[in-house]
Amino acid sequence: MTTVLTPPPPVTSSPVPPPPPTGPDGTPRPHARPGLALAGAALCVLAAVLLGFAGNLTVVGHLQHARDQQTAYDELRRQLALGTAPVGQRTFDDKPVPMGAPVALLRIPALGLREVVGEGTTSGVLMSGPGHRRDTPLPGQAGTSVIMGRQWGYGSPFNALSQLPAGARIEATTGQGRAVYQVRGVRRPGDRLPAPAGAGGRLTLVTASGSPYTPSGVLYVDAELATPVQPSPPRHVRLGWIGPAEEALGGESGAWLVVFLRSQALLAAALLTVWLHRVWGNWQTWITAGPVLAALGLAVAGATTRLLPNLL
């Protein structure tokens, strides 16, 4: 009788799980969780915008103001030398003076202030320095010329206006020459208004009042012209013919589109940063993505600042 030997059953072993994925530095990568990815991207966006706001309203904003002032000063000097500086609402070749174009050099010796004044009073213009209200005459001409400036942000050029004593000297140089004013007083909403300037000239400086970066009102400095009145060219923009964005404490509602587009770019960069962190590693990601997020955060914050009061 022949015995048939059957082979033993194969030994089955439990499958060995694959090792977890690791990054370039050998550290294991976390498992992908969409919820955590979105939360990380949201935190990146929030941090970039908050840091951008802090930078725009302090160090970066002051540096931008200094750069823009130097550029505007060089341009105004060139135009004064060529005799092409604006003397009214239109340029020498009969075109409207562009928003932000330099129109005057303002000096207040008592405050150590020397600022180039741009045309217009929107929040964007006042980031570069004081602005001339377009529906008023230029300094030195008959009537009341109005110049607005920020109290705290972007160089804070008008921060010390409330300290101007009566009789202080204010100088304004335009394409028509130098006009000298003497301060009559500081006033706030509700104070008695000065008498109309009539055929003479007056300069009113305007800024915000209140705590730092939280304007609660408007402060005015009135000064009377002490030099001869300069001729006034025809004015095409009459008093009151400006939009709400150019009024005191006005914001630029048209900046919402720029804010939206830059926010989309920031969100896309934040999502890409989270993905790179998972597939690339920690330090490599932040060294590469950090400057990009910071730049986009500054861009979003700068556009958003234009929505805030122009005298901030």
How would you characterize the overall build of this protein?
- By secondary structure, this protein is α+β, with helices and mostly antiparallel strands.
- The chain has two domains: 37-56 and 255-305; 58-229 and 242-251, Sortase (Sortase, Chain: A, Beta Barrel), CATH 2.40.260.
- It is built from five helices and eight strands, in the order H-H-E-E-H-E-E-E-E-E-E-H-H.
- The protein has helices spanning 34-57, 59-82, 123-126, 256-279, 282-305; strands at 102-108, 113-119, 131-132, 143-148, 169-174, 177-187, 201-211, 214-225.
- Strands 1-2-3-4-7-8-6-5 form an eight-stranded mixed beta barrel.
- Helix 1 crosses helix 4 (256-279), helix 1 (34-57) crosses helix 5 (282-305) and helix 4 (256-279) packs antiparallel against helix 5 (282-305).
- It is elongated, with a radius of gyration of 30 Å.
- The N and C termini lie far apart (108 Å).
- The model has no long low-confidence stretch (mean pLDDT 87).
Quick description:
The chain has 312 residues and is an alpha+beta fold. The chain contains five helices and eight strands. It has helices at residues 34-57, 59-82, 123-126, 256-279, 282-305, and strands spanning 102-108, 113-119, 131-132, 143-148, 169-174, 177-187, 201-211, 214-225.
